[in-house]
Amino acid sequence: MSDIATSDWAKVYLQTRSPSLFDGVIKLHLVYNTGAAFGIGEHHEWLVELAEVLIIVVLWLLLRSTSLVGRIGFALAIGGGVGNLVVRWTGPDGPLRSPVIDWIHLSFYPTTFNLADIALRLGIVVVIVGVILDARRRPILARSHQPIETVATSQSVLPTHGTTQPSKE
């Protein structure tokens, strides 16, 4: 919803101006983007929309198979993808033909983007962090889940972790 609202705002406010913030580090600049990230697929809106739908479905399927951090990342990425898709489907040129409205440009970044793009990219970073955290945790979990064997002694049964001890008889 915030992407739709800010895109509508940008179409009106940035139509005739391009303000700069923080000594030109951030420039608010109106761009109609018919492609995906970095202009990939430009002027092939239907292909970009099809790819977006497929990616959203795959992310949705992966959402449940990861840790909390990964699920947060997938949710951000899905939200960003859906935000851009809604703008494309409800735009003035109609479904399969409408561009997204990009309006944020950083002096050190090559393309102009919008809030949905921020959510999408942030989501990807969070998923990567989740995968790294999961990989670091896995060896610890693998060691703590070794099978417990029992050893009988003359007085009781003692649990051991992966090793057997001779009885003292």
Jot down its keywords:
169 residues; single chain; four-stranded antiparallel β-sheet; 50% helix; two-stranded antiparallel ribbon; alpha+beta
Explained architecture:
- The chain is α+β, with helices and mostly antiparallel strands and 169 residues long.
- The protein has one domain.
- Helix content is 50%, strand content 17%.
- It is built from four helices and six strands; from the N terminus they run H-E-E-H-H-E-E-H-E-E.
- The protein has helices at residues 2-13, 45-63, 68-90, 115-144, and strands spanning 20-21, 26-33, 100-106, 112-113, 148-152, 157-161.
- A four-stranded antiparallel β-sheet has the order 1-2-3-4. Strands 5-6 form a two-stranded antiparallel sheet.
- The longest helix is centred in the C-terminal third of the chain and has 30 residues, at 115-144.
- The protein is globular.
- The chain starts with a helix and ends in an 8-residue tail after the last strand.
DSSP summary, beta strand count: 6
* Low-pLDDT windows of residues: none
Kindly report the oligomeric state of this protein.
single chain
How many domains? The number is 1
Give the amount of beta strand, in percent: 15-25%
Name the helix and strand elements from N-terminus to C-terminus, one letter apiece: HEEHHEEHEE
| Global shape | globular
* Mean residue pLDDT: 79
Q: What is the spatial order of strands in the main beta sheet?
A: 1-2-3-4
Q: How does the major sheet shape up?
A: 4 strands, antiparallel
Integer-rounded radius of gyration:
26 Å
User: What level of helicity do the residues show?
Assistant: 40-55%
Q: What is the end-to-end distance?
A: 74 Å
Structural category = alpha+beta
Count of DSSP-assigned helices: 4
